[in-house]
Amino acid sequence: MAARNDYHRGFWAEGVPFIWISGMAVLVLLAIVIGFLGLIFAKGAGHFWPAPMAQVTLKSGSSVMGPVMETEAIPHAAATRSLFKIGNRDVYGLDFRWVDDAAVEKREYPPDAAVIERSEYGDMHGFIQALREGGAVTARAGPDFHPLLEKKIARAAHLKEEIKKAADDVEHAREPLAKLEVDIRLLEDGSEAGTPEAALKLEKLNAEYDALALKLGDAITVPEQRIESLRKELDAPTLEVALADGQVKTMPLKDVRAFYLPNRMGLSAKAGHYLCKVWDFLWTWPRESNTEGGVFPAIFGTVMMVFIMVVIGAPFGVMAALYMNEYAKPGFFLNLVRLGVNNLAGVPSIVFGIFGLGFFIYFIGGGIDRLFFTDKLPEPTYGTGGILWASLTLALLTVPVVVVATLEGLAAVPRANREGALALGSTKWQMLWNVVLPNSMPGILTGVILAISRATGEVAPLMITGVVKLVAELPVDAGWPFLHLDRKFMHLGFHIYDVGFQSPNVEAAKPMVYTTTGLLLVIVVTLNLVAILLRNRLRKTYKGAAL
């Protein structure tokens, strides 16, 4: 009996039940995380796989064609229904349609069923009939038709690129004229308008404009003529497609991005198509209200914003922690600062966004515009949202995290290391630079990792400091000064919000939401892994660090 009582006392005294409870809690959390990630990647990764095209004839006589997205039980009925992605939004007004399985009379998978990817209105599903040019049929569906159509689509894409290049040439040639037009407009609308001096200046500017326009005549006219010729060639071909319900539609070939016949594709062809679609998703620009196309601008904006944030925020956090731990005298003021830093880490991110809007954008950015960009006012240059102000706002948001982690890293450096360096004749700064900071680097990188994780997923402060739905230009390009920190940018977190909650086509947006979410998680994990690998290398180098 005594032995049994001793066993029970040891069982509770050693905390065995709490160990089991803790282990079960960890298992539950792991299951939740794995299930969450599995759902995201299962829903997102399958978006690019070419699903078979099913054509069903209903008992009513109508026909529906498209891939089956999901099948579910009808509520309060012993029956099922299937969700078809019918495409042809410009014809039917919707992309998806539920079909009761009991209403299906015949189901088949026609080998000639085609998915035609368009620049607008989503995919078109149907049977490609003919290629027309100038109203006349130039080729009909047959053995050699599909290779010819692929060449025509590639030619249309090439013509679009040539038109874009010619338009850029025209814009570049017109830059001097555009500057004179601005000067003329400012003079006409300025406070001096109507005075004799203004009239003389205006006459001089108009003469300069006419002379320059005459000088640049060929540089502008030749590209414009080329654009007109290329557009005629681009607008000529059209594609004739028969829909599942018997309608025949004709569309400009310039609107077709690609086509494929999923019911004819084997496993290797589907795998190749899948990889091409993933590549397009990563390296192309979005279209169709961000529900189609790629997310390259959002990837670039997210990574660049995090990089700027780390470059700006991490040094300030480290310097603040170094001063607090090594130079500041203990007392009420230092305790107050520590309390403030700890509290700042819990402030809602939208508060930082409001501060960034008021201080960085309106105060600093507006001041820069008044000092250096008066000729462009009232149109703001830096006095509006941009990637610099968004990065500074997030740097301010994450500095407390870096400060706390750095303080812990500095405190973990053994006192003997400091005293040894000072005993060998080092100054305090030399001791800090050569001994303390290298040994506390793992702790500093821990703070950077936490800052990256938090900042990459933040959306609220970005919505008022520079992020937008779609951008025409990246913050980096080949034009001087190459790095344009005043430009607005796209962000994967905001892209998910925009596609998921602001899209006019909710069903079509769902796969993009899951896919973009999975990509954001991959980027966060990749950035963190780089920092973790660097931290682990430093741990091996400086084994005196305790973190």
CATH superfamily of the domain at 296-541: MetI-like
Low-confidence stretches: none
CATH topology of the domain at 296-541: MetI-like fold
Helix content: 55-70%
The tally of strands reads 14
The top level CATH class name of the domain at 296-541? Mainly Alpha
Instruction: For the record, give the distance between the C-alpha atoms at the N and C termini, rounded to a whole number.
Output: 47 Å
Helix count, DSSP H or I runs of 4 or more residues: 16
Descriptive labels:
16 helices; alpha+beta; six-stranded antiparallel beta sheet; 14 strands; 547 residues; flat; MetI-like fold
Describe the structure.
By secondary structure, this protein is an alpha+beta fold. It is built from 16 helices and 14 strands. It has helices spanning 2-13, 16-45, 89-92, 145-173, 175-189, 196-215, 217-235, 267-283, 296-327, 332-344, 349-372, 387-411, 415-423, 428-457, 492-501, 506-541; strands at 54-58, 63-66, 68-73, 80-85, 96-100, 104-108, 114-118, 124-133, 136-140, 237-242, 248-252, 256-260, 286-287, 292-293. Strands 7, 8, 9, 10, 11 and 12 form a six-stranded antiparallel β-sheet that branches. Strands 2-1-6 form a three-stranded antiparallel β-sheet, with no helix packed on it. A hairpin with a 4-residue loop joins strand 1 (54-58) and strand 2 (63-66). Helix 4 runs antiparallel to helix 7, helix 9 runs antiparallel to helix 14 (428-457) and helix 12 crosses helix 14. The longest helix has 36 residues, at 506-541.
